[in-house]
Amino acid sequence: MISRLFNFRGGVKPEPHKSESSGTPIEKAPLPKRLVIPLRQSLRSTARCLVEPGQKVLKGEQIGQGEGALGTGVHASTSGTVVEIAPYPMAHASGLETLSVVIAPDGEERWIDRAPFDYRKVSREEALGWLRSCGILGLGGAGFPTHVKLGSGTGIDTLVINGAECEPWITCDDRLMRERAADVLSGAMILRELIGARRVLVGIEDNKPDAIERMRAAASGVGDDVAVVAVPALYPAGGERQLIRVLTGIEIPQGKFGTDFGVQCFNVGTAEAVHRAIQFGEPLLSRIVTLTGNVARPGNYEILLGTQVAELLALVGPKADTDRYIMGGPMMGIELQSLGVPVTATTNCIIAASPALFPPPPPEQPCIRCGECARACPADLQPFELYWFSRAKNFGKAREYHLFDCIECGCCAYVCPSHIPLVDYFRFSKGEIQAREHERTASEQARTRFEFRNFRQEREKAEKAAKLAAKVAETRAKRPEAATAPETAAAPEPAASPEDLKKALVAAALARAKQQKAAVTPKNTDRLSAETQAEIAAIDARREKLTTQDADKTP
Amino acid sequence: MLNSPYIRKPASVQGVMLAVLVALIPALVVYAWQIAAVVLVNLAIATATAMAGEAFVLKLRARPIAPALSDLSAVVTAWLVVLCFPPILPWWATVLGVLIAIVAVKHLYGGLGQNPFNPAMVAYCAMIVAFPALMSQWPPAGQLDFQTQLGLVLGGVRELDGITGATALDTVKTGLRAAGATVETVMAQGSFGLVGGRGWEWLAPAYAAGGAYLLARRVITWHMPAAFLVALAMISGAFWLANPGQFTSPLFHLASGGAMLGAFFIVTDPVSGATTPRGKLIFAAGVALVAYVIRVFGAFPEGIAFAVLLMNICVPLIDMNTQPRVFGYRGDKTR
Ligand code: SF4
Ligand code: SF4
User: Fold this and answer.
1) I need a labelling partner for B329 at 20 to 30 A (CA). Which of A86, B33, B112, B219 fits?
2) How far is the CA of A97 from the CAs of A346, A363, B1, B38, B195, in angstroms?
3) Which ligand neighbours the alpha carbon of B270 most closely?
């Protein structure tokens, strides 16, 4: 079906380190001592809590009601007792705390009643509502609610299933495809039906021959509009936009969505979760996580959502020189600030890091404009120019050179012979632009307030002056015979009025001048797309984390 | 705290510079063997000067010395200065040239990565303007024994006319001024080899071999050498086809003077050159064009150094107007 693959420019080939964890079958992690299930699902939505401390819950019971368009259901991942509803650190780049439901498992794993959901018998909206209440999110990384992605689906031609898994070390999708290919494909078929796509393309990096073979075998019975395609192993081939580009040739710019171009992309893990939700009526309660790095028993484990990272470490046995933990891959992952963070739908990998495995980068040297970074950039940016503008705090220029098209994939920093932490500069610039945006809004509000006060004062003064004038006129009219004497008494008052008016005029002029000045101030941070704003919000959160963490560190 | 990415490619500035030095070795071998072994002495003088000069300036600027010295960028500059200077230059001229390159060009603009001009080329231009006679004395290939060469370099012996001559480019240029002279008659009297100056022409393939190594190591991209060589061949070819009596062949231009050195080691300087793929093509082709004009119609026999500096000035303009299309902006002309 596919005649050719397209390629995206740039990309890097770091050491894959996949073999450490790809060899052993997925293992079910034992029940943890307690589960911490965050109610906050994304920066934009927090679920409403449905349970109280002391309440008994069943496995799969809904404990949080998704609110707003982006909200999804939250469920108890096992049966037990709710012991606490309190803020806990969340598995987000920010490391901020978020309201979480803490459950003490009873060890019985008693399920709610569950039954297959016949999505063909109901309307499309109802089917999406079911996925929403099952808490199905993108398991690939961004954690975008699946019902939302499906909901925008009209005119979708191609459904892309992402099995590329291009980050080093991570193998959870690889194992999933090898062991549950049929389930993944079943989920993909449901997704295709719900989104109305004509064809399905499953993209898998060609360094996973076994996964490709299993998925092909599973796809062989389905029809020839489903293709499992081996894509070249090149980071970041698993980036949604990059994979879509490789498979279809379509380039989706930042700020646009696949649906605008007739494609939509879901992770293989998401497809499996959809399969479970529809065929068994199971909400999203667990996911496969790669535990690897500087550990004795690296592997892939099926882990209940809400399991704290600290409890996972016993499974794999971190070695003595482990100095920190990275959630996600080494190119884009985050360093964990606390081992108390729970596994969530987007946690695909936890890497124990040691100075030997991840040595600190050598000292930064001057940029020699070698252009390596530009050659590696999958967004076709000129990172060294962005670096230069960021250093010079020339944010307008940085935006002009497409700073916000940077996906923070890290390829540029990876290749730079001068060891410049380019991505950090870009994060800084994005954050700075965001901060200025805030400031601008704030000052705009202040200006409005100021103007209104001026207006009010002016009005009051004018009213006062008018009243006075009326009064004087009245007095005059009443005592026309005593024209001279009262006039001396009344004179100072009307004299004060012009002075007041003058003051008001000056104030008004000042305000106008100020307003004009504000109007000509260049605005380089407005008109951001929704996605960019979300990105900015994420950066902000990261920045906040940095500051809070610094505060933590100070004794 | 460290942020992602947590892994780095084992690449370093030092590695890049080392690759350039390695790539120059074939040419140095040919040079020492075919033309003047004293080039190795010059190399030592220049290297020491560059290191000392670099350390001195860094000290003045209160910057850490060790990392900058060990990145080898000063050594590369020193070697390039030596290779574009006549090999029998007295030692002080070499020292002066290297100091111009390192102190004036590199550090007065802020150090590695900041200089808008190619250091070696500025040094060459400054020296040929200041010491035109000295900078035009090139030894005929393989005719001076090492003793004499050493005497010229270290002792300041200057019995110039008997032992030195002009380069092939120079000979052609002055020769063609005579009435009735054609390329053929000039070439018949001068010391010409197969395609370029005798002995000197062998340097061209040696530089090309080094260039191939740099391309293979991905230190340079194909854009600059290809654009430079193709442009030089096309321009000289056009003139040659129009009037073979008055204009030398493209092959002669490619094999003579600093063409190959320029193609692979000078125009490819990342710091002072254009950086976008299209910009690189424009930059290198521009150098070739200006160099040809100076070679054939200008006051100097060799034009690459001036051409490079002229194009260096244009780099911001070139880069600005050749920004590649960003991912996802296909057909978007607004950018
Ligand atoms: S890779 Fe590093 S040294 Fe090279 S141009 Fe980019 S930022 Fe500069
Ligand atoms: S981090 Fe940004 S600039 Fe760097 S390679 Fe990735 S997209 Fe390009």
Assistant:
1) B219
2) 17, 33, 19, 71, 76
3) 1
For residue A268, which of A356, A204, A217 has the smallest C-alpha distance? A204
- Please classify residue B230 by burial: count the beta carbons closer than 10 Å to its beta carbon, then call 0-12 exposed, 13-18 middle and 19+ buried: middle
Q: Hey, which of A455-464, B143-152, B251-260, B310-319 has the most confident mean pLDDT? A: B310-319
Helices B304-321 and B277-297: crossing angle in degrees, nearest 10, is 150
Hey, whose CA ends up nearest to atom 6 of ligand 1? A373
Dihedral of alpha carbons B93, B95, B98, B102, sign: negative
Q: Which of A364, A356, A152 is nearest to A264 (CA)?
A: A152
* B221 contact residues in A (CB cutoff 8 A): 371, 375
The CA distance from A136 to A138, in Å, is 7
Rounded to whole angstroms, how far apart are CA atoms A55 and A450? Answer: 52
- Summary mean pLDDT of chain A: 86
Q: What whole-number distance in Å separates Cα of residue B200 and Cα of residue B194? A: 10
Q: Do A148 and A69 form a contact (C-beta atoms < 8 A)?
A: yes
Across the interface, which of A241, A368, A372 has its CB nearest the CB of B112?
A368
Overall average pLDDT of the B157-182 stretch? 68
- Residue B163 pLDDT grade (very low, low, confident, very high; cuts 50, 70, 90): low
| Burial category of B62 from C-beta neighbours within 10 Å (exposed 0-12, middle 13-18, buried 19 and up) | exposed
A80-89 β-sheet, strand order? A35-38, A97-105, A80-89, A56-57
Of B80, B32, B28, B141, give the one whose Cα is nearest residue B264.
B80
pLDDT at residue B238, rounded to an integer: 95
Find all residues with CB under 8 Å of A443, minimum gap 6, and list them: A518
Pairing of strands A74-75, A62-65: antiparallel
A19-28, A223-232, A482-491, B307-316: which has the minimum mean pLDDT? A482-491
**Separation between Cα atoms, residue A72 and residue A132, nearest integer Å:** 5
Q: SS3 for chain B, per residue? A: CCCCCCCCCCCCHHHHHHHHHHHHHHHHHHHHHHHCCCHHHHHHHHHHHHHHHHHHHHHHCCCCHHHHHHCCHHHHHHHHHHHHCCCCCCHHHHHHHHHHHHHHHHHCCCCCCCCCCCHHHHHHHHHHHHCCCHHHCECCCCCCCHHHHHHHHHHCCCCHHHHCECCHHHHHHHHCCCCCCCHHHHHHHCCECCCCECCHHHHHHHHHHHHHHHHHCCCCCCHHHHHHHHHHHHHHHHHHHHCCCCCCCHHHHHHCCCHHHHHHHHCCCCCCCCCCHHHHHHHHHHHHHHHHHHHHHCCCCCCHHHHHHHHHHHHHHHHHHCCCCCCCCCCCCCC
Nearest CA in chain B to A378: B327
What is the rounded CA–CA span in Å between residue B140 and residue A4?
58
Q: What is the pLDDT of residue B333?
A: 39
Q: Output the residue whose Cα is nearest ligand 1's atom 4.
A: A370
CB spacing of A363 vs B67 below 8 angstroms: yes
Nearest Cα residue to A48 out of A73, A23, A80: A73
Specify the DSSP element, H or E, that contains A263: strand A263-267
